[in-house]
Amino acid sequence: MRQVVLDTETTGLEVAQGHRMIEIGCVEVQHRRITGQTFHQFLNPGRDIDEGALQVHGITQEFLDGKPEFAKIADDFLRFVEGAELVIHNASFDIGFINTELSLASHEITDIGSCCTVTDTLELARKLHPGQKNSLDALCKRYEIDNSARTYHGALLDAQILADVYLVMTGGQSVLSLSTESEQAAKQRLAARRSKGPRSSLRVIEASAEELATHEAFLEQIRKECESGQ
Fold it and tell me: What is the largest CA-CA distance in the chain?
């Protein structure tokens, strides 16, 4: 099972008002293990960034000058996510921006859903925790995920945090990330223990007659003390 946890940052909230994507971050998860493989790109939107959006992510137009337009990196992005299950918090927002960018780039793929499936962790959280706050920050607090580095929103950072949240929210990592060396060492230790053969039976030491008599006298004294106390 291959999943790609994805997040974006944009110039504003409404794609219908001409807002554009300025950052995309992806984190690969395979068989419920974060692999360390990522896709990350800042983008030049060709337009101004709303002040409200700037306060959220802190990405300035000056910083984006010289960064590629989405059309330049579209194929690289699609190669990274193709065939994967996309895991996104509030997926309709990000999917809307991605599909718009694909259309503006005149790409042959105009719907990311045609090459990927999508899981919305916001919908999943609402089912698991109805009536509660289910923002990414709220989920981090609920599941004790460290998000102290999140002073600003950032696509790659938020995707990394969401990957941790998603794995905990859906049952944790099912496969331990053991290196080949540590796995081999563990097998060698197990083989060494088995080579020694079965353990010898335990030695049983029975109480002597004198010890049994002393114990019985002690119990009799306790019984008499209990009866006299009544």
Answer: 100
> Any idea which residues carry the catalytic annotation?
153
DSSP letter, residue 135: S
- Helix (H) / strand (E) element for 2: namely strand 2-10
Q: What is the pLDDT of residues 16-45, one digit of tens each?
A: 999 999 999 999 999 999 999 999 999 999
- Distances 140 to 28, 92, 122, 161, 213 between C-alpha atoms, Å: 19, 21, 13, 8, 64
Helices (H), 114-154: 121-128, 136-143
Q: Which two tokens stand for residue 79?
A: 């190669």
Q: Which two tokens stand for residue 176?
A: 């331990």
Q: How far apart are CA 148 and CA 98, in angstroms?
A: 28
Contact (CB, 8 A) for 11 and 101: no
How far is Cα 60 from Cα 51, in angstroms, rounded to an integer?
10
Q: What is the DSSP letter of 112?
A: G
Residue-wise pLDDT for 115-156, tens only, equals 999 999 999 999 999 999 999 999 999 999 988 877 778 999
Contact 69, 76 (CB under 8 A): no
Q: How big is the chain, counted in residues?
A: 230
